[in-house]
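Weekly puzzle thread! Below is a chain. First person to post its structure in token form gets bragging rights.
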Amino acid sequence: MRRIGLLGAVILLALSGTACTGSGHHSSVHASSTSSDSSSSAPVTVSGLPAGRTPTVRDTGPAAAPGTGIAFASHIYSLGPTGPLPAPVTVTIATTIALPAGDPVVVATRESTAAPWTYLAATATADRRHVRFTTSHFSLFGVLFIDLKAVAGAFKSGFLDGLDSGATETDTAKPSCANQAAARQDGYSISSSSTDTVYWCFGINPAGHRVLKVTDHRRYPLQVLHPNMAVLSDQYGHGELAALSHLGSGAYTIIAPGGTATFNADLDGAGSEGITTQMDGLGQSLYALQTGVETLVQILTKFGAGSGTKAIDALDKMLMARSCTTALGKGPGALVSGCFSPKNILHVFGVKGLLLAPIMAVGSVISFFHSEWNALLDQFNGHDKYQVSIRRKHVVQPLLGEPWAPYQEGFGKVAPTQVSNGGDPSGSFTITWDNWGGKTADGYGIALWVGDADIADGKLEPARFRAFDLGTCNGKQVYLHLAVWFPQHGQSFGPQDGEANYLLCPS
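Winning reply:
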């Protein structure tokens, strides 16, 4: 952090098109090509030029403040001749105010009033009335100071707004599940905690599996323990850095704020399974990192220097730094020193980082990471815990009647796929059941269509089936009737038609 002090809190910046204002002042001034004495009366001095070469300097006048919390500390000077120099030189510019002791210094430069500003590191002289920097070209230069207290406050509040995770995400959409009533049949029941930490639903998907969908309703990532439930899908928003934490979370699944994970909730027999949530420390660090970088981009934009800077690209660069990746999940102090160090900020934002690096040295920002963020984490206690339990009790499944004649097949069994009443082929069926165990059971399959023809001329065609009239036979729970119909021939379910006439129980 001591490296930030070398930058100073006076920053050179001007917005394109607003750098030069006022009376249109363009005066030529003297510039020494050899002296570096900050007490010189010349507003600009240059040292390091070849002997006999004197630069030209034009004072283009004062410039309006380009953004919130910043103001110029010097006029804008045009040094010439423009273009690259044979070797770097040292330039000293006089400021119009005495620079506060200990504040950082940065120099902004551009080739013309239409070009974007870039930035150079600089230092203030001992008298705090001059700024010295090294350049390898001549162009426009000016001095700007920044109200670090105001900008640090904006950074701090940006984090606070972004990490205010005690509240819920009021715009989080609830998940939806199909066949919710059917999912609770066959002995299934489900219960959960009473808080609104997550939204969930329980249903049956198109593949026929019972599924539990869980949506994170908090503003921080949740870690989900699901020991007996496979993850079918885990939804992350594009660029959501918190989602990356699932890569290192072992048996846990991470759900990002507003994201939804879908779990396979099938139970082979009687028993229970479920999920338990808690705050994800690694995911929270990534979420905090994302919020911090987005806040810095917003500050650059307020400075007029945010053009072309995308938060997602900056995040990618930040995570390329080993010091940052090793700091994740180790607490707020490690996040500051490992991810938001001056070196990393300059790496991520380039020369624009000279405008941002001093912010991280401000005591109030450091205190925020060490105290305010910890306070936020304390608020999570109890709010991040949530349980969903799925249970299945042992259920005695009904049978398809009981055999009442020789050579019969399927009767007396649970959900049989091959059924024959032991008579002619019109009483033999292949059935796939959509459900079994309720008041009725419906299925589809193949049966012999006879119509008005003889049985010998019948053809196997698609048919629909319904087992109904749940009752008892010889002390067992059974479906007492089975209906068969052919929708393609205009038929529909009729409780007195076809096989429904047979009472599936020996008399």
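Puzzle host: Confirmed. Bonus trivia for everyone else. The longest strand covers residues 77-94.
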